[in-house]
Amino acid sequence: MRLTTKGRYAVTAMLDLAIHAQTGPVSLNDISGRQGISLSYLEQLFAKLRRNGLVASVRGPGGGYRLSRADDEIQVAEIIDAVNESMDATKCNRQGDCQNGDACLTHHLWMDLSDQIHQFLAGITLKSLLEREEIRQISERQDEAAKSRIDTILAAEGALA
């Protein structure tokens, strides 16, 4: 399986968005700060996520992004598919030309594995991830770290005034 940074970051960002959705639109800058993903990379990912109907943008002050559907309706596989990631365990990108233009001996094995991975991720929703205790704990730690960074910046600005 070739799940690259693009797919992992897209799922991470969507999960962050789902976690913080109750406070209103979430800015990419906030996601970037909490998850350590560059803002320009998030902008590229969210353009694809928006085109695929997974998020909606909210303009203006206090704007950002929100989920376009309920968190129990968004599957991890959809997120990965939306950013053009491949869940392909074959060397030939499912073309069947892995051995001098023909299918190799294990081509169908790797095709089946790719299908199983996709089915597995299609069975996981953002809501099911949100319900996991370890994810809630990690999110709380990240929120505390972000708050601490903001407090440090504000204290430094206060000392300069």
Read across the widest sheet, the strand sequence of neighbours is 1-2
Helix % is: 55-70%
Class inferred from helices and paired strands: mainly alpha
The shape is: elongated
Tell me the fraction of residues in β-strands, as a range.
under 5%
Classify the oligomer.
single chain
Q: Write down the overall mean pLDDT.
A: 90
**SS element count, helices:** 7
**Any low-confidence stretches, pLDDT <50, length ≥5?**
none
Q: Count every beta strand, where a strand is a DSSP E run of 2 or more residues.
A: 2
Radius of gyration: 19 Å
N-to-C SSE series? HHHEEHHHH
Sheet having the most strands: 2 strands, antiparallel
Distance between the termini: 54 Å
Please describe the topology of this protein.
Elements: H1 5-19, H2 28-35, H3 39-51, E1 55-58, E2 64-67, H4 76-82, H5 107-122, H6 126-130, H7 133-160
Antiparallel strand pairs: 1-2
